[in-house]
Protein backbone atom coordinates (compact mmCIF):
# COMPACT_ATOMS: atom_id res chain seq x y z
CA UNK A 1 0.00 0.00 0.00
CA UNK A 2 2.88 2.37 0.78
CA UNK A 3 4.33 1.78 -2.68
CA UNK A 4 1.03 2.86 -4.21
CA UNK A 5 1.03 6.01 -2.10
CA UNK A 6 4.57 6.95 -3.20
CA UNK A 7 3.61 6.22 -6.80
CA UNK A 8 0.60 8.53 -6.57
CA UNK A 9 2.68 11.23 -4.86
CA UNK A 10 5.22 11.06 -7.68
CA UNK A 11 2.50 11.36 -10.31
CA UNK A 12 0.93 14.33 -8.54
CA UNK A 13 4.27 16.12 -8.18
CA UNK A 14 5.17 15.60 -11.83
CA UNK A 15 1.74 16.70 -12.98
CA UNK A 16 1.52 19.79 -10.80
CA UNK A 17 5.11 20.98 -11.07
CA UNK A 18 5.27 20.45 -14.86
CA UNK A 19 8.94 19.45 -14.79
CA UNK A 20 10.31 18.47 -18.23
CA UNK A 21 11.71 15.00 -18.69
CA UNK A 22 15.47 14.75 -19.08
CA UNK A 23 15.13 11.96 -21.63
CA UNK A 24 13.88 14.23 -24.40
CA UNK A 25 14.94 17.60 -23.01
CA UNK A 26 15.56 20.47 -25.38
CA UNK A 27 15.32 24.11 -24.36
CA UNK A 28 13.40 26.61 -26.42
CA UNK A 29 16.54 27.76 -28.28
CA UNK A 30 17.26 24.24 -29.49
CA UNK A 31 20.32 23.62 -27.34
CA UNK A 32 20.92 20.37 -25.56
CA UNK A 33 22.10 20.41 -21.95
CA UNK A 34 25.81 20.04 -22.74
CA UNK A 35 25.90 22.85 -25.27
CA UNK A 36 23.78 25.09 -23.06
CA UNK A 37 26.05 24.43 -20.09
CA UNK A 38 29.14 25.32 -22.18
CA UNK A 39 27.43 28.50 -23.28
CA UNK A 40 26.61 29.74 -19.77
CA UNK A 41 30.05 28.77 -18.50
CA UNK A 42 31.50 31.70 -20.47
CA UNK A 43 29.82 34.09 -18.07
CA UNK A 44 32.13 34.82 -15.12
CA UNK A 45 30.78 36.04 -11.75
CA UNK A 46 32.19 39.49 -12.54
CA UNK A 47 30.52 39.72 -15.95
CA UNK A 48 27.23 38.49 -14.49
CA UNK A 49 27.45 41.10 -11.74
CA UNK A 50 27.82 43.93 -14.24
CA UNK A 51 25.47 42.60 -16.95
CA UNK A 52 22.41 44.73 -17.72
CA UNK A 53 19.03 43.31 -16.78
CA UNK A 54 18.18 42.49 -20.39
CA UNK A 55 21.25 40.24 -20.67
CA UNK A 56 20.97 38.89 -17.13
CA UNK A 57 17.37 37.83 -17.77
CA UNK A 58 18.57 35.61 -20.61
CA UNK A 59 21.27 34.09 -18.41
CA UNK A 60 18.71 33.34 -15.67
CA UNK A 61 16.45 31.65 -18.21
CA UNK A 62 19.42 29.51 -19.33
CA UNK A 63 20.05 28.53 -15.70
CA UNK A 64 16.38 27.66 -15.29
CA UNK A 65 16.56 25.41 -18.35
CA UNK A 66 19.61 23.67 -16.86
CA UNK A 67 18.11 23.26 -13.37
CA UNK A 68 14.98 21.70 -14.86
CA UNK A 69 16.82 19.60 -17.40
CA UNK A 70 19.23 18.11 -14.88
CA UNK A 71 16.59 17.47 -12.21
CA UNK A 72 15.89 13.88 -13.22
CA UNK A 73 19.46 12.88 -14.13
CA UNK A 74 21.84 14.87 -11.92
CA UNK A 75 20.41 16.33 -8.74
CA UNK A 76 23.65 18.04 -7.74
CA UNK A 77 23.86 20.00 -11.01
CA UNK A 78 20.16 20.80 -10.88
CA UNK A 79 20.55 22.26 -7.38
CA UNK A 80 23.69 24.15 -8.44
CA UNK A 81 21.89 26.02 -11.21
CA UNK A 82 18.73 26.41 -9.10
CA UNK A 83 20.76 28.22 -6.44
CA UNK A 84 22.25 30.50 -9.08
CA UNK A 85 18.74 31.40 -10.18
CA UNK A 86 17.58 31.79 -6.57
CA UNK A 87 20.43 34.10 -5.64
CA UNK A 88 20.00 36.36 -8.67
CA UNK A 89 16.19 36.36 -8.49
CA UNK A 90 16.28 37.35 -4.81
CA UNK A 91 18.72 40.17 -5.50
CA UNK A 92 16.74 41.50 -8.45
CA UNK A 93 13.23 40.81 -7.15
CA UNK A 94 12.33 38.55 -10.08
CA UNK A 95 9.62 36.52 -8.42
CA UNK A 96 8.78 34.12 -11.21
CA UNK A 97 12.36 32.84 -11.31
CA UNK A 98 12.44 32.88 -7.52
CA UNK A 99 9.33 30.71 -7.45
CA UNK A 100 10.71 28.27 -10.03
CA UNK A 101 14.11 27.82 -8.42
CA UNK A 102 12.90 27.50 -4.82
CA UNK A 103 10.33 24.94 -5.95
CA UNK A 104 13.06 22.87 -7.64
CA UNK A 105 15.30 23.07 -4.57
CA UNK A 106 12.37 22.04 -2.39
CA UNK A 107 11.82 18.99 -4.57
CA UNK A 108 15.50 18.07 -4.40
CA UNK A 109 15.42 18.20 -0.59
CA UNK A 110 12.27 16.09 -0.66
CA UNK A 111 14.11 13.48 -2.71
CA UNK A 112 16.80 13.46 -0.01
CA UNK A 113 14.06 13.01 2.64
CA UNK A 114 15.04 16.32 4.21
CA UNK A 115 11.43 17.31 4.59
CA UNK A 116 11.84 20.40 6.78
CA UNK A 117 14.22 21.95 4.24
CA UNK A 118 11.83 21.06 1.43
CA UNK A 119 8.98 22.79 3.29
CA UNK A 120 11.17 25.88 3.81
CA UNK A 121 11.88 26.29 0.09
CA UNK A 122 8.28 25.58 -0.85
CA UNK A 123 7.43 28.43 1.54
CA UNK A 124 9.74 30.73 -0.41
CA UNK A 125 7.94 29.70 -3.59
CA UNK A 126 4.56 30.52 -2.03
CA UNK A 127 5.81 33.95 -0.96
CA UNK A 128 7.08 34.60 -4.49
CA UNK A 129 3.65 33.67 -5.86
CA UNK A 130 2.08 36.17 -3.50
CA UNK A 131 4.22 38.95 -4.99
CA UNK A 132 3.42 37.73 -8.50
CA UNK A 133 -0.31 37.89 -7.72
CA UNK A 134 0.16 41.49 -6.52
CA UNK A 135 1.41 42.53 -9.97
CA UNK A 136 5.17 42.15 -9.72
CA UNK A 137 6.91 41.75 -13.08
CA UNK A 138 10.48 41.24 -14.26
CA UNK A 139 12.53 41.16 -17.49
CA UNK A 140 11.94 37.39 -17.56
CA UNK A 141 8.19 38.04 -17.44
CA UNK A 142 7.69 41.63 -18.58
CA UNK A 143 3.96 41.28 -19.16
CA UNK A 144 3.23 40.06 -15.65
CA UNK A 145 1.01 37.05 -14.95
CA UNK A 146 -2.55 36.07 -15.67
CA UNK A 147 -4.83 34.85 -12.90
CA UNK A 148 -4.73 31.43 -14.51
CA UNK A 149 -0.92 31.34 -14.25
CA UNK A 150 -1.07 32.46 -10.63
CA UNK A 151 -3.72 29.88 -9.72
CA UNK A 152 -1.85 27.15 -11.57
CA UNK A 153 1.27 27.99 -9.58
CA UNK A 154 -0.62 27.95 -6.29
CA UNK A 155 -2.38 24.66 -7.04
CA UNK A 156 0.90 22.94 -7.91
CA UNK A 157 2.54 24.13 -4.70
CA UNK A 158 -0.50 23.30 -2.57
CA UNK A 159 -0.52 19.77 -4.00
CA UNK A 160 3.22 19.37 -3.44
CA UNK A 161 2.99 20.72 0.12
CA UNK A 162 0.05 18.44 0.84
CA UNK A 163 2.07 15.43 -0.26
CA UNK A 164 5.11 16.63 1.66
CA UNK A 165 3.26 17.04 4.98
CA UNK A 166 1.50 13.76 4.29
CA UNK A 167 4.90 12.05 4.14
CA UNK A 168 5.88 13.85 7.34
CA UNK A 169 2.79 12.48 9.10
CA UNK A 170 1.17 15.89 9.66
CA UNK A 171 -2.19 15.00 8.14
CA UNK A 172 -4.04 18.10 9.34
CA UNK A 173 -1.64 20.40 7.51
CA UNK A 174 -1.51 18.06 4.51
CA UNK A 175 -5.27 18.02 4.07
CA UNK A 176 -5.50 21.78 4.48
CA UNK A 177 -3.20 22.13 1.47
CA UNK A 178 -5.12 19.45 -0.42
CA UNK A 179 -8.34 21.38 0.15
CA UNK A 180 -6.76 24.58 -1.21
CA UNK A 181 -5.52 22.75 -4.29
CA UNK A 182 -8.92 21.13 -4.81
CA UNK A 183 -10.68 24.51 -4.76
CA UNK A 184 -8.48 25.76 -7.59
CA UNK A 185 -8.96 22.54 -9.55
CA UNK A 186 -12.72 22.94 -9.21
CA UNK A 187 -12.52 26.59 -10.23
CA UNK A 188 -11.06 25.70 -13.62
CA UNK A 189 -12.69 22.31 -14.06
CA UNK A 190 -9.37 20.47 -13.83
CA UNK A 191 -11.08 17.16 -13.21
CA UNK A 192 -8.05 14.99 -13.85
CA UNK A 193 -6.03 16.88 -11.23
CA UNK A 194 -8.85 16.44 -8.72
CA UNK A 195 -9.01 12.73 -9.56
CA UNK A 196 -5.31 12.44 -8.70
CA UNK A 197 -5.74 14.52 -5.56
CA UNK A 198 -8.66 12.53 -4.15
CA UNK A 199 -7.06 9.21 -5.01
CA UNK A 200 -3.99 10.32 -3.06
CA UNK A 201 -6.17 11.24 -0.08
CA UNK A 202 -7.94 7.89 -0.34
CA UNK A 203 -4.58 6.09 -0.15
CA UNK A 204 -3.72 8.09 2.96
CA UNK A 205 -6.97 7.34 4.79
CA UNK A 206 -6.75 3.69 3.84
CA UNK A 207 -3.29 3.46 5.39
CA UNK A 208 -4.64 5.21 8.49
CA UNK A 209 -7.50 2.70 8.75
CA UNK A 210 -10.17 5.42 8.29
CA UNK A 211 -12.23 3.35 5.88
CA UNK A 212 -15.26 5.62 5.54
CA UNK A 213 -13.06 8.62 4.68
CA UNK A 214 -11.00 6.49 2.30
CA UNK A 215 -14.12 5.24 0.51
CA UNK A 216 -15.48 8.79 0.21
CA UNK A 217 -12.19 10.02 -1.31
CA UNK A 218 -11.94 7.11 -3.74
CA UNK A 219 -15.50 7.68 -4.88
CA UNK A 220 -14.75 11.39 -5.45
CA UNK A 221 -11.63 10.44 -7.40
CA UNK A 222 -13.71 8.06 -9.51
CA UNK A 223 -16.30 10.78 -10.12
CA UNK A 224 -13.68 13.27 -11.26
CA UNK A 225 -11.99 10.60 -13.37
CA UNK A 226 -15.28 9.90 -15.17
CA UNK A 227 -15.83 13.65 -15.69
CA UNK A 228 -12.34 13.93 -17.16
CA UNK A 229 -12.92 10.86 -19.34
CA UNK A 230 -9.52 9.57 -18.25
CA UNK A 231 -9.58 5.79 -18.03
CA UNK A 232 -6.41 5.73 -15.90
CA UNK A 233 -8.06 7.86 -13.22
CA UNK A 234 -11.12 5.68 -13.42
CA UNK A 235 -9.04 2.53 -12.94
CA UNK A 236 -6.84 3.81 -10.08
CA UNK A 237 -9.64 4.68 -7.63
CA UNK A 238 -11.39 1.42 -8.57
CA UNK A 239 -8.21 -0.38 -7.56
CA UNK A 240 -8.20 1.59 -4.31
CA UNK A 241 -11.83 0.72 -3.61
CA UNK A 242 -11.05 -2.92 -4.29
CA UNK A 243 -8.24 -2.84 -1.73
CA UNK A 244 -10.51 -1.08 0.77
CA UNK A 245 -13.35 -3.58 0.38
CA UNK A 246 -10.83 -6.40 0.76
CA UNK A 247 -9.67 -4.99 4.10
CA UNK A 248 -13.24 -4.45 5.32
CA UNK A 249 -14.41 -7.94 4.35
CA UNK A 250 -16.71 -6.89 1.50
CA UNK A 251 -15.21 -9.46 -0.81
CA UNK A 252 -17.72 -9.46 -3.67
CA UNK A 253 -17.77 -5.65 -3.99
CA UNK A 254 -13.98 -5.58 -3.91
CA UNK A 255 -13.69 -8.17 -6.64
CA UNK A 256 -16.09 -6.26 -8.92
CA UNK A 257 -14.05 -3.06 -8.54
CA UNK A 258 -10.75 -4.82 -9.18
CA UNK A 259 -12.07 -6.66 -12.23
CA UNK A 260 -13.24 -3.36 -13.71
CA UNK A 261 -9.87 -1.72 -12.96
CA UNK A 262 -8.01 -4.64 -14.51
CA UNK A 263 -9.87 -4.18 -17.79
CA UNK A 264 -8.01 -0.90 -18.20
CA UNK A 265 -4.66 -2.05 -16.82
CA UNK A 266 -4.63 -5.17 -19.01
CA UNK A 267 -5.20 -3.08 -22.16
CA UNK A 268 -2.39 -0.68 -21.23
CA UNK A 269 -0.16 -3.18 -19.47
CA UNK A 270 3.00 -1.72 -21.04
CA UNK A 271 2.36 1.66 -19.37
CA UNK A 272 0.59 0.41 -16.24
CA UNK A 273 2.44 -2.83 -15.53
CA UNK A 274 3.00 -2.13 -11.81
CA UNK A 275 -0.59 -0.99 -11.30
CA UNK A 276 -1.84 -4.20 -12.90
CA UNK A 277 0.44 -6.30 -10.71
CA UNK A 278 -1.01 -4.60 -7.61
CA UNK A 279 -4.55 -5.13 -8.92
CA UNK A 280 -3.94 -8.81 -9.62
CA UNK A 281 -2.35 -9.20 -6.19
CA UNK A 282 -5.46 -7.75 -4.53
CA UNK A 283 -7.65 -10.05 -6.64
CA UNK A 284 -5.54 -13.02 -5.53
CA UNK A 285 -6.01 -11.99 -1.90
CA UNK A 286 -9.77 -11.80 -2.45
CA UNK A 287 -9.88 -15.27 -4.03
CA UNK A 288 -7.90 -16.67 -1.11
CA UNK A 289 -10.26 -14.97 1.31
CA UNK A 290 -13.27 -16.36 -0.55
CA UNK A 291 -11.85 -19.87 -0.29
CA UNK A 292 -11.22 -19.36 3.41
CA UNK A 293 -14.77 -18.12 3.96
CA UNK A 294 -16.13 -21.07 1.96
CA UNK A 295 -14.22 -23.51 4.16
CA UNK A 296 -15.53 -21.74 7.26
CA UNK A 297 -19.08 -21.84 5.87
CA UNK A 298 -18.83 -25.56 5.16
CA UNK A 299 -17.44 -26.18 8.63
CA UNK A 300 -20.27 -24.12 10.13
CA UNK A 301 -22.86 -26.10 8.14
CA UNK A 302 -21.39 -29.42 9.25
CA UNK A 303 -21.27 -28.19 12.83
CA UNK A 304 -24.89 -27.02 12.61
CA UNK A 305 -25.99 -30.40 11.22
CA UNK A 306 -24.18 -32.23 14.02
CA UNK A 307 -25.67 -29.88 16.59
CA UNK A 308 -29.16 -30.38 15.16
CA UNK A 309 -28.71 -34.15 15.23
CA UNK A 310 -27.56 -33.95 18.85
CA UNK A 311 -30.57 -31.80 19.75
CA UNK A 312 -32.97 -34.25 18.06
CA UNK A 313 -31.35 -37.22 19.84
CA UNK A 314 -31.45 -35.41 23.16
CA UNK A 315 -35.11 -34.49 22.65
CA UNK A 316 -36.00 -38.11 21.94
CA UNK A 317 -34.10 -39.26 25.00
CA UNK A 318 -35.90 -36.71 27.15
CA UNK A 319 -39.28 -37.74 25.78
CA UNK A 320 -38.48 -41.40 26.38
CA UNK A 321 -37.27 -40.66 29.89
CA UNK A 322 -40.38 -38.61 30.62
CA UNK A 323 -42.59 -41.38 29.30
CA UNK A 324 -40.83 -43.99 31.39
CA UNK A 325 -41.06 -41.73 34.43
CA UNK A 326 -44.80 -41.31 33.97
CA UNK A 327 -45.27 -45.06 33.56
CA UNK A 328 -43.22 -45.76 36.65
CA UNK A 329 -45.29 -43.29 38.65
CA UNK A 330 -48.51 -44.94 37.44
CA UNK A 331 -47.23 -48.41 38.30
CA UNK A 332 -46.06 -47.23 41.69
CA UNK A 333 -49.44 -45.66 42.49
CA UNK A 334 -51.27 -48.81 41.50
CA UNK A 335 -48.91 -51.01 43.48
CA UNK A 336 -49.41 -48.89 46.57
CA UNK A 337 -53.18 -49.04 46.03
CA UNK A 338 -53.07 -52.81 45.79
CA UNK A 339 -51.19 -53.08 49.06
CA UNK A 340 -54.17 -51.50 50.79
CA UNK A 341 -56.84 -54.19 51.51
CA UNK A 342 -59.49 -54.18 48.80
CA UNK A 343 -63.07 -55.24 49.00
CA UNK A 344 -62.70 -57.31 45.89
CA UNK A 345 -59.86 -59.27 44.37
CA UNK A 346 -61.17 -58.24 40.99
CA UNK A 347 -60.78 -54.52 41.70
CA UNK A 348 -59.01 -53.35 38.52
CA UNK A 349 -57.42 -49.97 37.77
CA UNK A 350 -58.49 -47.92 34.78
CA UNK A 351 -55.25 -48.76 32.99
CA UNK A 352 -55.75 -52.48 33.63
CA UNK A 353 -59.30 -52.28 32.30
CA UNK A 354 -58.03 -50.45 29.22
CA UNK A 355 -55.36 -53.05 28.50
CA UNK A 356 -57.82 -55.88 29.22
CA UNK A 357 -60.28 -54.44 26.71
CA UNK A 358 -57.64 -54.06 24.01
CA UNK A 359 -56.42 -57.59 24.67
CA UNK A 360 -59.97 -58.85 24.24
CA UNK A 361 -59.93 -57.27 20.78
CA UNK A 362 -56.98 -59.46 19.88
CA UNK A 363 -54.32 -56.73 19.89
CA UNK A 364 -50.71 -57.70 20.52
CA UNK A 365 -48.46 -56.17 23.19
CA UNK A 366 -46.75 -53.90 20.59
CA UNK A 367 -50.08 -52.76 19.18
CA UNK A 368 -51.42 -51.97 22.65
CA UNK A 369 -48.19 -50.09 23.52
CA UNK A 370 -48.50 -47.93 20.40
CA UNK A 371 -52.19 -47.38 20.99
CA UNK A 372 -51.96 -46.09 24.56
CA UNK A 373 -48.40 -44.66 24.35
CA UNK A 374 -46.74 -47.04 26.79
CA UNK A 375 -43.63 -49.10 26.43
CA UNK A 376 -44.11 -52.79 25.59
CA UNK A 377 -42.50 -53.74 28.91
CA UNK A 378 -45.10 -51.77 30.83
CA UNK A 379 -47.95 -53.41 28.88
CA UNK A 380 -46.47 -56.83 29.65
CA UNK A 381 -46.28 -55.89 33.32
CA UNK A 382 -49.99 -54.95 33.35
CA UNK A 383 -50.93 -58.21 31.63
CA UNK A 384 -49.06 -60.22 34.22
CA UNK A 385 -50.98 -58.42 36.96
CA UNK A 386 -54.25 -59.20 35.17
CA UNK A 387 -53.32 -62.89 34.79
CA UNK A 388 -52.61 -63.04 38.53
CA UNK A 389 -55.77 -61.19 39.55
CA UNK A 390 -58.02 -63.35 37.40
CA UNK A 391 -56.02 -66.51 38.02
CA UNK A 392 -55.42 -67.13 34.33
CA UNK A 393 -52.58 -68.83 32.52
CA UNK A 394 -52.92 -67.04 29.16
CA UNK A 395 -54.67 -64.17 27.46
CA UNK A 396 -57.52 -66.24 26.08
CA UNK A 397 -58.37 -67.56 29.54
CA UNK A 398 -57.97 -64.04 30.94
CA UNK A 399 -60.49 -62.61 28.50
CA UNK A 400 -62.93 -65.51 29.13
CA UNK A 401 -62.85 -65.06 32.92
CA UNK A 402 -63.18 -61.30 32.61
CA UNK A 403 -66.37 -61.80 30.59
CA UNK A 404 -67.72 -64.26 33.12
CA UNK A 405 -67.00 -61.79 35.92
CA UNK A 406 -68.84 -59.05 34.05
CA UNK A 407 -65.71 -56.93 33.72
CA UNK A 408 -65.94 -56.91 29.91
Q: Number of helical runs?
A: 18
Give the topology string: H per helix, E per strand: HHHHHHHHHHHHHHHHHH
Overall structural domain count: 2
Instruction: Provide the gyration radius in Å.
Output: 46 Å
Could you name the CATH class of the largest domain? Mainly Alpha
Kindly report the oligomeric state of this protein: single chain
Largest sheet: none
Low-confidence stretches: 1-30, 340-345
Arithmetic mean of pLDDT: 83
Q: Strand fraction band?
A: under 5%
Count of beta strands = 0
Helix content: over 70%
CATH superfamily of the largest domain: Tetratricopeptide repeat domain
What is the CATH topology classification name of the largest domain? Serine Threonine Protein Phosphatase 5, Tetratricopeptide repeat
Distance between the termini: 92 Å
Alpha-beta content class: mainly alpha
In the CATH hierarchy, the architecture of the largest domain is: Alpha Horseshoe
Overall body shape: rod-shaped
Describe the protein in words.
There is one protein chain. The protein is built from 18 helices and no strands. With 408 residues, it is an all-alpha fold. It has two domains: 2-293, Tetratricopeptide repeat domain (Serine Threonine Protein Phosphatase 5, Tetratricopeptide repeat, Alpha Horseshoe), CATH 1.25.40.10; 341-404, Orthogonal Bundle (Arc Repressor Mutant, subunit A), CATH 1.10.10. It is rod-shaped, with a radius of gyration of 46 Å. Mean pLDDT is 83; it is low at 1-30 and 340-345.
